[in-house]
Design a protein that fits this description.
With 407 residues, the chain is an all-alpha fold. 78% of the residues lie in helices and 1% in strands.
Length: 407
């Protein structure tokens, strides 16, 4: 529940919420679409650089200390962002805010859940993702706060709120069940062998995972996912208002994306415990790509309905499916570090796509060409994950070292 609540606040205030601040900041600082979008890309770049470090820290010092520090930095970052008056200070505040988000967001919850669950890991990850999925309901509230009080004042509210909400939640997180005399799925160590008929777990280190095709196919799929949602969530409100959709409806669209994402976060995550995770993953990638294709042709409010019904569940399902796939294929002992490597490499998509979409808008005067290209990229993620194969159990470290030393 703590991981889900952290996902709700960080998702609503920053990940989804940034779209509400996009135009007010751009107009106040007299920036271009591309320059304003670049801050989001800097956030993705920094997140990619820091993701392996955050994953290492979670594996070594635990989620509690990592998340507490991240929450404190996020609060500072929001307040600094409220005081910016130039492009340079805007980017600088984003760098600080992004550093905290990498350690405070619900990705920390994924590590905790992967350590505590095995048989129902898909469903458990789906439940922890509910908070992030619901966080879109904050966007209309942010739109109202910005209209009523201003974007600077709203950012101060969010910074103080992060300290009030995030710091206590971080203290609730617990690293591994073995620290409390249990095993994954809540079983006591003494009864675990009698109750489970699962095959022995595989445990991959980062180095071992990097030598498997499954790791790289997962990274390709995660990169595509990052590119698609990066372009959509940064620009969707600006795009919809440009094609004649009211600002209030545009804000509600983000909210409904997140609400409908719960269908994928819960339903597709549940199916992943029953079916081959690759096929469920491919279905989610396909739904997301089709959704962006439909978005490119929106002109009337009713046309948002098919977009929402495809993009929302597809996008939402990919959240828990990636860590569920990783847990199933690579185990849990190096989960945080492997997740950090996947997300770090995947940020290439999230860095490039918002700036690309903003550049297309600046050059062509519209977003449709950008969304058509993003949709095509999104559809490529489905075949990529189907090429993944379950890796063979890695050799023990001592045996692997002996093989490496053999001339």
């Amino acid at each position: 529940m703590a991981g889900s609540a952290l996902g709700f606040y960080t998702g609503g205030s920053f990940f989804y919420g940034f779209s509400a601040f996009f135009k007010p900041i751009m107009k106040d600082l007299a920036l271009s679409y591309a320059a304003t979008s670049l801050a989001y890309s800097l956030q993705r770049l920094e997140g990619g650089i820091l993701a392996p470090l955050v994953g290492f820290l979670v594996d070594r010092v635990g989620p509690r200390k990592t998340s507490f520090l991240g929450s404190a930095v996020v609060g500072i970052g929001f307040i600094l962002l409220s005081q910016v008056n130039s492009l340079l200070t805007y980017y600088g505040a984003f760098v600080i805010l992004s550093a905290g988000m990498g350690a405070a967001s619900y990705g920390i919850g994924n590590v905790v859940v992967a350590n505590w669950f095995r048989r129902s890991v898909g469903r458990a990850l789906g439940l922890v993702a509910i908070g992030f999925g619901l966080s879109g309901i904050m966007v209309p509230l942010l739109v109202w706060l910005i209209t009523a009080f201003g974007w600077r004042e709203t950012l101060i509210f969010l910074g103080v709120g992060m300290w009030v909400v995030g710091l206590p939640l971080a203290l609730v997180l617990r690293r591994r069940p073995e620290d409390y005399g249990l095993l994954p799925d809540g079983e006591a160590a003494a009864t675990h062998e009698a109750k489970t008929n699962l095959a022995p777990e595989v445990e991959f280190s980062v180095g071992q995972a990097l030598r498997t095709r499954a790791f790289w196919m997962l990274t390709v799929a995660a990169t595509v996912h990052s590119a698609v949602h990066g372009a959509v969530f940064v620009h969707v409100i600006a795009y919809l208002t440009e094609v004649g959709i009211a600002t209030e409806i545009a804000g509600l669209t983000v909210m409904f994306i997140t609400l409908l994402s719960l269908v994928g976060r819960i339903g597709l995550a549940w199916l992943s415990d029953l079916w081959d995770k690759r096929w469920v993953y491919a279905i989610a990638m396909g739904l997301q790509g089709v959704g962006v294709l439909l978005l490119a042709f929106v002109h009337e409010p009713w046309q948002l309905v098919p977009f929402l019904l495809t993009f929302g569940p597809g996008y939402g399902g990919l959240g828990p499916l990636r860590p569920a796939f990783q847990r199933d294929y690579f185990g849990r002992s190096g989960f945080g570090a492997i997740q950090g490597m996947v997300l770090g490499l995947a940020t290439v998509g999230g860095i490039a796509s918002p700036v690309f979409a903003g550049w297309v808008r600046d050059v062509s005067g519209g977003y449709r060409p950008a969304f058509l290209i993003v949709a095509a990229i999104g559809l490529l993620g489905a075949p990529a994950i189907l090429f993944a194969r379950r890796p063979r159990k890695p050799l023990p470290a001592s045996v692997e070292a002996a093989h490496s030393a053999t001339p």
